[in-house]
C-alpha cells in the first residue's frame, strides 16, 4: 500500500478503461501547492526589494565531464561544493547510480539534484516493472526533463549528465531544468567546464584506450580545479561499461596536479634532450 501511494497508483475502477500511466508527481510533491512562494521566480537583482530582502543567491560551482572511449564512457568529477564565496563541503559526491548501467553527474543546487535524481531512479524502477527492462539513456533523459518541467521559471537549479549503456551501446545525454536536452560524445558541465574542455579538446581522440582516457579525465579535472575557484577538492573517476559502472580510488586534486605537473616537466625535458 505504501508503494502504491508513493507511485501514485489508485484503486482500479471496473467501470473505467484500465490505464497503465503513472502519476509522475505523487502526493508528496503537492506540498508545493501549500507553499506557492517556493515556486515564485526570484526578484530582479536591480530591484530594491531584492537588495533589502537578504543576501544574493549563492553561486554554484563544479566541474563534471564525460566522454566516450574504446570500451565505454569515462566520467570524472571534482568534489567541492560551494555556497557563494564559501566552500560548504570539500568532499561531496557529484555522481551517483540511477541503476546498474546508468550513472548521473550533477551540477547546480545539491538539494535539487538529489531530489530529481531520486525521482528519476524511482521512475526507472517503475518503468522496468511495467516493461521488463530499463529505459534507454535518451529515454531516461526525457523522463528527467518531464519531471523537472513543472518547475521551469523557478529558482530550481539542476543539471544532469546521464552516462549509460543500453541496447544501442554507450550514450551520454545532458538534461537541464529549463528543458534543454542534448547528446554528445563529449560533455562537460559546471563553472570549471571551459578549462576542462581546453584539456579534452587537446588530448581527446575517438577510440582511445582506457589508460589514455584515465589520464585525460584526471588531467582535465585537475586543470579545472587549478583555474576555477569553485572547483577542487578530490578527483573521482568513474567508468561505464557493458558490464556496469565502476569507480577508481579517489585522489586529492592538489597532490594529483603536482604529480601530473612533474610528469609533464620530465616529458618535456626528455624531448629536449633527444633533440640536443
UniProtKB/TrEMBL annotation:
Query: So what does this thing catalyse?
Result: Cleavage of peptide bonds with very broad specificity
- Molecular-function GO terms, alphabetical: threonine-type endopeptidase activity
Active-site feature positions: 62 (nucleophile)
Q: Does the keyword Disulfide bond apply?
A: no
Query: Where is it found, in Gene Ontology cellular component terms?
Result: cytoplasm; nucleus; proteasome core complex
- Tell me which stretches of the chain form a coiled coil: none
**One Pfam short name:** Proteasome
Subcellular locations according to the entry = Cytoplasm; Nucleus
Q: What is its main location?
A: cytoplasm
InterPro entries under this entry? Ntn_hydrolases_N, Pept_T1A_subB, Proteasome_bsu_CS, Proteasome_sua/b, Proteasome_suB-type
Question: What residue spans carry the region label Disordered?
Answer: 40-61
**UniProt keyword Transferase, yes or no:** no
Give me any GO biological process, just one.
Answer: proteolysis involved in protein catabolic process
Q: Which UniProt keywords apply?
A: Cytoplasm, Hydrolase, Nucleus, Protease, Proteasome, Threonine protease
Return the similarity comment: Belongs to the peptidase T1B family.
Subunit note: Component of the proteasome complex.
State what this protein does: Component of the proteasome, a multicatalytic proteinase complex which is characterized by its ability to cleave peptides with Arg, Phe, Tyr, Leu, and Glu adjacent to the leaving group at neutral or slightly basic pH. The proteasome has an ATP-dependent proteolytic activity.
Q: What is this protein called?
A: Proteasome subunit beta
Q: What is the lineage of its organism?
A: Eukaryota, Metazoa, Chordata, Craniata, Vertebrata
Amino acid at each position: 500500500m505504501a508503494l502504491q501511494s508513493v507511485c501514485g497508483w489508485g484503486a482500479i475502477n471496473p467501470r473505467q478503461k484500465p490505464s497503465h500511466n503513472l502519476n509522475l508527481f505523487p502526493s508528496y510533491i503537492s506540498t508545493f501547492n501549500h507553499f506557492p512562494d517556493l515556486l515564485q521566480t526570484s526578484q530582479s537583482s536591480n530591484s530594491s526589494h531584492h537588495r533589502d530582502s537578504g543576501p544574493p543567491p549563492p553561486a554554484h560551482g563544479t566541474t563534471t565531464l564525460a566522454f566516450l572511449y574504446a570500451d565505454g564512457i569515462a566520467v570524472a568529477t571534482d568534489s567541492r561544493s560551494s555556497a557563494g564565496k564559501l566552500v560548504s563541503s570539500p568532499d561531496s559526491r557529484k555522481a551517483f547510480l540511477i541503476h546498474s548501467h546508468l550513472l548521473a553527474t550533477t551540477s547546480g543546487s545539491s538539494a535539487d539534484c538529489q531530489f530529481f535524481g531520486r525521482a528519476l531512479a524511482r521512475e526507472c524502477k517503475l518503468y522496468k516493472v511495467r516493461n521488463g527492462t530499463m529505459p534507454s539513456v535518451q529515454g531516461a533523459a526525457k523522463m528527467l526533463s518531464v519531471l523537472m518541467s513543472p518547475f521551469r521559471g523557478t529558482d530550481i537549479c539542476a543539471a544532469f549528465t546521464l552516462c549509460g549503456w543500453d541496447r544501442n551501446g554507450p550514450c551520454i545525454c545532458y538534461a537541464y531544468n529549463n528543458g534543454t536536452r542534448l547528446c554528445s560524445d563529449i560533455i562537460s558541465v559546471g563553472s570549471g567546464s571551459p578549462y576542462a574542455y581546453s584539456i579534452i579538446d587537446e588530448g581527446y581522440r575517438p577510440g582511445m584506450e582506457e589508460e589514455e582516457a584515465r589520464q585525460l579525465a584526471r588531467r582535465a579535472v585537475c586543470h579545472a580545479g587549478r583555474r576555477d575557484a569553485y572547483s577542487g577538492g578530490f578527483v573521482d573517476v568513474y567508468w561505464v561499461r557493458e558490464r556496469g559502472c565502476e569507480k577508481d580510488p579517489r585522489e586529492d586534486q592538489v597532490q594529483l596536479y603536482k604529480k601530473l605537473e612533474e610528469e609533464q616537466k620530465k616529458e618535456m625535458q626528455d624531448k629536449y634532450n633527444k633533440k640536443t
